[in-house]
Design a protein that fits this description.
This protein has 171 residues and is an alpha+beta fold. The protein is built from five helices and nine strands; from the N terminus they run E-E-E-H-E-H-E-E-H-E-E-H-H-E. The longest helix is centred in the middle third of the chain and has 10 residues. The protein starts with 11 loop residues before the first strand and ends in a 7-residue tail after the last strand.
């Protein structure tokens, strides 16, 4: 039985079935809850499973993003950078940032029953802020259809690369 999602926090892993009938996962990279028009930003992951994925499958997957330097405004700690660069030495001296999928809370509440929270990862702050793009994903039909294989081609055409989840997990 699915548990109703009451709140979403950074690091939450939400799984859902896309139009192809396979499970996909979104990783919450940040939330804005201070005032009205609350929203969540997610990274698109490479998870594509016949059965409901586990947290371990997510850790072994990837996400779409770029190696980017934003004038040190959204900094990572030296420890976080060393972790990123140990997993992805090809991006050094740049920061890894994710491509953002923004979902407004009021919209999410209309289709939340399509998602299931499967865990939480303690990830670096500012992951989406160090990325270089985002899109509004506040429609269930868009999400379901977008993750039917189209997202790989589209995100790669927008200059996004694949990075390992382990590079952004705090230890």
């Amino acid at each position: 039985m699915k548990v109703k999602i009451k709140d979403i926090n950074q690091g939450d892993l939400l799984t859902f079935k896309a139009a192809d009938g396979r499970y996909k996962v979104l990783l919450c990279t940040s939330t804005y809850k201070d005032k009205s028009t609350q929203n969540y930003t997610f990274a698109a992951l490479t998870v594509d499973e016949q059965q409901k994925p586990t947290k371990q499958i997510v850790i072994e997957s990837g996400f779409y993003g770029v190696g980017n330097r934003k004038e040190d405004y959204f900094k990572y700690s030296n420890k976080e950078l060393e972790r990123m660069w140990s997993v992805h030495p090809e991006v050094k001296p740049y920061y890894i940032g994710s491509y953002g999928l923004t979902i407004w809370r009021k919209d999410f509440m209309r289709f939340q029953e399509n998602f299931e929270k499967i865990g939480n990862l303690e990830i670096v702050n500012n992951l989406d802020k160090n990325g270089n793009g985002s899109m509004n994903a506040s429609d269930w039909n868009f999400i379901r259809d977008f993750f039917n294989g189209e997202h790989h081609r589209l995100l790669l055409s927008r200059g996004q690369k694949l990075f390992k989840i382990e590079s952004i997990i705090k230890h």
